[in-house]
């Protein structure tokens, strides 16, 4: 047992050294984080809804990071690259979606923002013109990429039918 503690301390020290570049202090590393304002989550969602309203799949796809993952409400296919994400929105945007946040929990970190909760996505049937509200859960994970907030992960799933 006496041999384990020094090994753990050496491993922890090595990990700490990897986390902060040589010559930088933990304080200076933290100072590099982009501040997350009180309205950042709402601002990002407004950008997302506006991109949906544009009807342009490229406009929506541009909101996603280079290595983003999209687990969409109405697709069984995980989208893990730009082409796959764009392909999803080519079809999905035909329903003229409008998202409304119902509940929201926001967590902030260094150059990242996580928003989870429930939302309603209004979709219009292309043939009948009938508007349908889809109640769903969501997780948006945003990260700073090239000086802009990008969606690194979006997962949305329909709410179970309540009894």
Give the key terms:
disordered N terminus, 2 domains, single chain, Nuclear Transport Factor 2, Chain: A, Steroid_delta5-4_isomerase, Ca/CaM-dep_prot_kinase-assoc, about 160 residues, 5-stranded mixed β-sheet, alpha+beta
Provide structural commentary:
It is a single chain. By secondary structure, the protein is an alpha+beta fold. It has 2 domains: 1-32, no CATH class; 35-158, Roll (Nuclear Transport Factor 2, Chain: A), CATH 3.10.450.50. 33% of the residues lie in helices and 36% in strands. The chain contains 5 helices and 5 strands. It has helices at 4-19, 26-31, 40-54, 57-61, 82-92, and strands spanning 64-71, 98-109, 112-124, 131-145, 148-158. The protein has a 5-stranded mixed beta sheet with strand order 1-5-4-3-2, with helices on one face. The longest helix is centred in the N-terminal third of the chain and has 16 residues, at 4-19. The N and C termini lie far apart (55 Å). 16% of the residues are buried.
């Amino acid at each position: 047992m006496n041999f384990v503690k020094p090994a753990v301390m050496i491993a922890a020290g090595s990990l700490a050294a990897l986390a902060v570049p040589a010559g930088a202090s933990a304080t200076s590393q933290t100072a590099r984080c982009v501040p997350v304002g009180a309205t950042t989550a709402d601002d990002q969602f407004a950008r997302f809804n506006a991109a949906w309203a544009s009807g342009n799949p490229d406009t929506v796809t541009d909101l996603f990071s280079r290595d983003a993952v999209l687990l969409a409400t109405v697709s069984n296919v995980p989208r893990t690259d730009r082409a796959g994400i764009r392909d999803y929105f080519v079809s999905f945007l035909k329903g003229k979606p409008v998202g409304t946040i119902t509940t929201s929990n926001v967590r902030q970190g260094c150059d990242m923002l996580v928003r989870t909760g429930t939302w309603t996505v209004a979709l219009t049937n292309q043939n009948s013109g009938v508007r349908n509200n889809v109640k769903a859960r969501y997780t948006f994970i945003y990260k700073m990429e090239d000086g802009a907030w990008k969606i690194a992960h979006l997962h949305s799933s329909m709410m179970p039918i309540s009894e």
